[in-house]
Each structure stands twice: as C-alpha cells, then as structure tokens.
C-alpha cells in the first residue's frame, strides 16, 4: 500500500475507518489512499548517534527499551555488494503491489545454499504471525515477500554465547549492547536489501537461529516507505510474538499498554496513537473519538472494553503525577495492565 513517507504519519491522529473495528485495520484503511510526501531523511546513522530499540528479556517478560549505537553509513563497496546480491521472491500474493500491505522479510545468517531454508522459515514465521489477530482476520490484505541475502557464514553472532562471531549480510547479533536477547542488526544494510522490494510497508529481519530474541526499531522512517524494522530469530516460535508486538507499533501505530511506575503519569497533550487517550469513556463517547464505538463490547482478550486506567509508557523521562491516562484498546502481543 502507498503510505506517507515521512514521520508525520506516525504522529498524526489516525482517522478511524467507519467499517473497521480494529486499529490495525483502521490504519490500513486510513493510509491506503494517502499520497506520497517528499522523502524523509535517511535512517539515523553515524558513530555519534544512537537508535532506540525495544526488546524482551524472555517470552513472558514486559518489553524494555534502550539506546544502541547506530550503524555507520554504508560504504560504496557495501552498497554495491547489497545491490548485486539478493533476489526478491514472492511468498504470498493477494493483489498487486501498492494495493496491499507489503510485508518484506530479509534473511540473515543464511548461506547461498540455505536460501530454500530461508523461504521455508518465512512461510512458517508468517503463519505464526498471521495466526494472531488482527492479522488472522485481515490476512488477505497482505502480500509477503522474501528478499534473499547471502551470508558468508550460517547462523548469527552471539548464538549461543556472546563470544561467537559470524560474518553475515546484515550483521545480526544477540548480546547487542550486552543484552543477551536483544537481536540487533545493521539497519542501513536492511534498508539496502528491503528497498529491492517494490513497496515495502513492513520489514522483518529473520535471523537464522533457534535462540529466543528480537528487537523493534520503531523510530526508523525509511526512504523506502516503511516505518520500523522488527528482528526475530527464524526457528524460535516465541520470537514470532516479538514481531507481532513490534509491528503493532510500526504498522499499527499503537502505543504500549503497560505500567512502569517509575515513569510517573502522563500530563502532555492528547496522544496521537489510536489506542490511548486522556479522555474518559464518557468523553470518548460524547466526542466520538478513538475506540468509542467499542466501549462496553466484549474484548478479544476477555472481559469488556471499557475505560481502563493505566499509564502510558513514557520513554523520555518521568513527569509529575497528575491525572492518569486512560486506555482500553487491547492490541496483539501487548500485555494490557488494568488498574
Ligand atoms: Zn512495545
């Protein structure tokens, strides 16, 4: 699908489609007809900058956030190597490019002779991701592509231990910034490969590994049009839930819904994300904002959709306690904490 190419879309309140009952579907509907805007700057890079990443320490844990060093810009040689490498292989086709959300998987840690394994892993991973709502109900809105990247060595760095180093096309590595389950990647190399696909909306790096891990680079706005990159280990089913969670941010434009008491209480302007609000249930209903249509209805995670008190994750700094944020729209892969 054609989408806005700047970060503006991420901070603009989404128009909730009248027929769609799920935020992700609303996003797809709202962005489907958007016209392209001038290209956004390249993803941040350079030795003096950092990237914000989200990760999980284990399948049952809450997401955490940290800053990791940004990769250096690609050299001419690296750019050429990526350009000369990699074939784009269709995995699932539900319609012409541009008419659907195009999911692009890029493989890392697969040698030239393992590309068949990569394609099989893409099918498996997509099956695991799309088994989760809202993907399950909207499967036919997606095309899925595999972009081959030939790594010199099989497997990825940091698997199983921190001293393991592998020469791979995208530089996937566990123990990123010393955190075992944080699976980082060179996002500039990812861009070089993902941009081979015609219209990438969602980019997932599959790192050839059985070890649990992943990462969400949700602050990236790519020149190719996608917002954010999710990484996951290819042969670990639990890692698929990392992808589901991170694409809730990058594609669904949804905020986290869990509580870190140390962040204090949000006191800023009405958030742009469609699943959180400062308004009460009565105000949402009166003003016909956000999830007002579903207040009082049963929720896919059990219980009743209603006003739920909680606190937004505030990644920057704590704010003084004063009035709470209300949010009640569950999303896939997110632990909704009700207080
Ligand atoms: Zn999150």
Please describe the topology of this protein.
Blueprint: H1 8-11, H2 23-32, E1 50-56, E2 63-69, H3 76-84, E3 88-92, E4 101-108, H4 115-129, E5 142-147, H5 187-194, E6 202-207, E7 214-221, E8 227-233, H6 239-250, H7 281-287, E9 309-310, E10 325-326
Helix pairs in contact: 4-6
The structure holds zinc ion.
Structure characterization notes:
This protein folds into two domains: about 10-250, Collagenase (Catalytic Domain) (3-Layer(aba) Sandwich); about 260-339, no CATH class. It is about 20% helix and about 15% strand. It has helices at about 10, 25-30, 75-85, 115-130, 185-195, 240-250, 280-285; strands spanning about 50-55, 65-70, 90, 100-110, 140-145, 200-205, 215-220, 225-235, 310, 325. The strands form three sheets. The protein has a six-stranded mixed β-sheet with strand order 3-5-4-6-8-7, sandwiched between helices. Strands 1-2 form a two-stranded antiparallel sheet. Strands 9-10 form a two-stranded antiparallel sheet. A hairpin with a 5-residue loop joins β7 and β8. Bound molecules: zinc ion. Zinc ion binds near residues 63 and 245. Keywords: Signal. GO terms for molecular function: metallopeptidase activity. This is Secreted protein. It comes from Streptomyces alboflavus.
Give a quick precis of the structure.
By secondary structure, this protein is of the alpha/beta class. The chain has helices at residues 8-11, 23-32, 76-84, 115-129, 187-194, 239-250, 281-287; strands spanning 50-56, 63-69, 88-92, 101-108, 142-147, 202-207, 214-221, 227-233, 309-310, 325-326. Helix content is 19%, strand content 17%.
